[in-house]
Each structure stands twice: as C-alpha cells, then as structure tokens.
User: Fold GntR family transcriptional regulator from Yinghuangia aomiensis.
Amino acid sequence: MMSLLDDGGPIFAQIAAELANQIADGTVGEGERVASSNEISAFYRVNPATAARSLTVLAEQGLVEKRRGVGMFVAEGARERLVRERRRGFADRYLRPLVVEAARLGIGLDELLGLVREELTSVEVTAGVKA
Assistant:
C-alpha cells in the first residue's frame, strides 16, 4: 500500500477511496482479504476509529464484506461494479471538460486525437502498460 493521502477531504474518505482504487485496478482481487482497521491505522498513522470508518464506507458500498472472526474481504463483483460506475462518470468528468477546453483553444478533432494518442503513448512507456 502506498499512501496518497492529502489535505483535502475527510481522512476516512481518502482511505476508502484509495482502497477502492486498489480494488478497481485489481491490486486487491475479489475474495482477497483487505487490511484490517488496525493495519490501516498503523499504515496511515490514523486513529483506529478512522480506519474502521473507511472500511465501513466500503462495506456500505458493497465492495467488501465481513467474515466473522476472519476479517474483511473484497466482495464478489466489486471490481466490475466499480469499473462500471467509474466509466459512467468518465465522459462527464474528463472528456467533456477536455473537449470544451480544446474548442476554446481552437484545437480541432484531428489535433485533439493526436494529442490523446501522444499522451497514451507516454503513459504506456512510463507505466509499462498498453493503453
């Protein structure tokens, strides 16, 4: 786990978002145990109640489930649900502002697509993945 917490928003929400990102990108797979509230508390150096609240948020979203006496585990279908929800918001959150700003700057479709291709190539090279 790599801590990406910042000063924006409640700490429990930031931790929950980071754990959800790990589920979405497959770092923590379905059926796998997630860190306990004590482990989260120690890692992020936060109050155990804050750590527990982050897990509660994930449980309320149906992303993790408690197995009595064993811990919290990624729920079946959690990754698929997360990816589906995030894809729905992708155009509104990222594409629309990109297209609006491109129009303001007089960037046409071909040029915009070229810029996107260049960025994808850059991401592939730095991340070592195929986009």
